[in-house]
Design a protein that fits this description.
Blueprint (H helix, E strand, L loop, with lengths): L14 H8 L18 E7 L4 H5 L6 H4 L3 E5 L6 H10 L3 H4 L5 E2 L8 E2 L4 E2 L14 H4 L5 H7 L3 E6 L7 H6 L4 E4 L3 H11 L6 E7 L1 H9 L4 H20 L4 E7 L4 E2 L2 E4 L4 H4 L2 E4 L5 E6 L4 H12 L3 E5 H6 L9 H6 L3 E5 L3 E4 L5 H5 L2 E2 L5 H4 E7 L4
Parallel strand pairs: 1-8, 1-9, 6-7, 6-8, 11-16
Antiparallel strand pairs: 2-18, 3-4, 4-5, 9-18, 10-17, 12-13, 13-15, 14-15
Helix pairs in contact: 9-11, 10-11
């Protein structure tokens, strides 16, 4: 069963505006209903790959996190990191910020763009970005961080060095002062330092190891549960650094599904016929069709994929509200002509073109509850 993102009231796009409302930023409201009254210094921890269902299923491995009541919120669509972090940073649904997936085909380019690496496939780190892919041009809307800073809030981004000045940070998380963290303990120390700043303060921080283990070992593996225990200890350590007028907010960018049935696009002539580029990822594919082939490709994909996938046109996806109530012209141009969303434990992989990703045990991107529902925990200090 596919769910609907709850934009405007209970989605990742609503998290930072809701926090900023409690920090006194004009023009913001608490859309979610966070219990943050009186909080002036707030840490926002983003745990990559921690779905609400996975967290609820493992209380023994996450006793600290599961002891706190969680708001029920959703990621956006697709349920993938680049899109979710962009919704967090801008306060906008994907249809408005325009970062609509992992691999997308920007109009005018012959190669797919990797939104996490912020590069066209096959390009090197030294290659100059085309003007239309410069992050501040690709996503020109003022971020929530920029809004907060302009209103007098001290906003800090605590994360690994690779995030400092990255394309995704420049596009969607710009405006915060960056603090590099080299380990989980260093992350806690940096957050404690910035939360000692006077005045209203927001410390945004990100932890990605759980997602990595989920992809490689699977979200039902012993390794994943061991990593969840590390996340739980990290959250508790952060909570212990929060001052008396502060709070810790814990969210995630998406959940994850352990893959059972793999369909190999590269081995299927029926699926490849009429397709110019295949974007997205294993649980949510963008199909960019050749000129005049959309109808035939739609029929072939419906027949080949059966009940394991929902196949829709771009306009159907937009009309369904999956990208939000509004979709900009720029965002519309980046969405595939067709979309294929996985149900149950299915995945549409590419064993030749994406050989490493094809072997991963955990994937995400679709609109199932395991992928779309994410926790939103509030921890207030006891001292």
């Amino acid at each position: 069963m596919l769910l609907q993102p709850r934009y405007g009231s209970a989605s990742l796009a609503d998290v930072v505006p809701s926090i900023l409302a409690h920090l006194g930023v004009p023009g913001t409201t608490d859309r979610i209903g966070f219990e943050l009254e009186g909080a002036r210094r707030i840490c926002l921890l983003v745990v990559d790959g921690l779905g609400a269902e996975q967290l609820a299923a493992h209380p023994d491995d996450a006793p600290f996190l599961t002891s706190h009541t969680s708001n029920s919120i959703t990621a956006g669509f697709p349920s993938t990191t680049a899109t979710s972090l962009s919704s967090l940073g801008t306060g906008l649904p994907p249809g408005e910020h325009g970062i609509v997936g992992y691999l997308v085909s920007p109009p005018g380019h012959k190669r797919l763009m990797n939104s996490l690496k912020w590069a066209l496939q096959g390009s090197s780190s030294s290659d100059e970005l085309p003007p239309d892919l410069v992050p501040e041009t690709f996503q020109p809307t003022r971020t929530s961080f920029e809004h907060g800073v302009a209103s007098g809030v001290g906003i800090f981004h605590v994360g690994p060095a690779l995030q400092n000045g990255s394309g995704l940070t420049r596009a969607s998380l710009r405006g915060a002062s960056f603090r590099t963290s080299i380990t989980a303990g260093d992350l806690v120390g940096n957050v404690a330092d910035v939360l000692s700043s006077p005045g209203p303060t927001l410390a945004y921080t990100y932890f990605g190891d759980l997602d990595l283990v989920g992809h490689v070992r699977g979200p039902s593996s012993d390794a994943w549960r061991a990593e969840l225990r590390q996340v739980d200890r990290l959250a508790q350590s952060l909570a212990e650094t929060v001052p008396t007028d502060g709070a810790l907010v814990v969210v995630s960018d998406h959940g994850m599904v352990e893959i059972g049935d793999r369909v190999d696009y590269d081995a299927s002539p029926a699926l490849r016929a009429g397709v110019g580029q295949l974007g997205g990822e294993a649980r949510m594919r963008y199909v960019y069709t050749r000129k005049g082939a959309t109808s035939d490709v739609y029929d072939a994909w419906k027949a080949e994929l059966g009940r394991s996938f929902t196949v829709v046109t771009k306009d159907e996806a937009v009309d369904n509200g999956w990208f939000g109530p509004a979709v900009s012209q720029a965002a519309y141009g980046r969405i595939g002509d067709l979309l294929a969303l996985a149900h149950d434990r299915s995945a549409l992989v590419r064993t030749d073109a994406e050989s490493i990703a094809a072997r991963l045990r955990g994937h995400h991107g679709s609109l199932t509850s395991a992928e779309l529902l994410v926790p939103a925990l509030i921890v207030r200090p006891c001292h």
